[in-house]
Amino acid sequence: MKVKGIKILWEKEKNEYSKHEIGSGVQNFVTEILMSEDIFSLKKGKLSKKDKDRKDEFLLEITKKRKRADMIIFISDEIVIPVEVKKYKNIKTGEKQIFNYQKVWDKKYGILTDGYTWRFYNNKIIIREFTIDEILYKTNIFLIFWKEYTQIQNYYLQFFEKTSETSEYEEDLNIEKNRHNFFDDITKLIDSFRKKLNLKGYFKEINEQKNIKKSVEISYAYFIQFILYKTLADNDFHNFGKDFTGRLKRIHQSLEMKNYGDILFVINIISKNISKNIYKPFTSEQKIINETLEEILAKPQNKLYEITPWLDIFVFIKKYDFANVKNEIFGFIYENYLKQIYEDKNKGQYFTSPEIVDFILEEIGYNEEKLINKNENKLSIIDPSCGSGTFLYSAVRNLINTFYKKPTFANAKKTEKLIRENIFGLDIEEFPLYLAEMSIIMKMLPLIINDNYNNPIEKKIKIFKTRDSISEFLDVSIKNTVYETESSYKKNKQQMSFFTKELDLGYISYVRDEDNLKEMKLSMENMKEPQIDRFRYDYVIGNPPYISYNQCSSKENFLFFKLIKEKKVKLSDVYGVNLHSTPSKRKVYAPKPNFYSFFIALGLGLLKENGILSYIIPQTILTEPDYDVLRYHFSKYTRIEKIIIFSNKMFIDRGLGQNKKIATSSLIFVVKKCLASDNHKVKVIDYNRKSDDIGICFQNISKKKNINLLEFYKKRQRIYKFSQQIL
Question: How far apart are CA 532 and CA 520, in angstroms?
Answer without folding.
Answer: 9
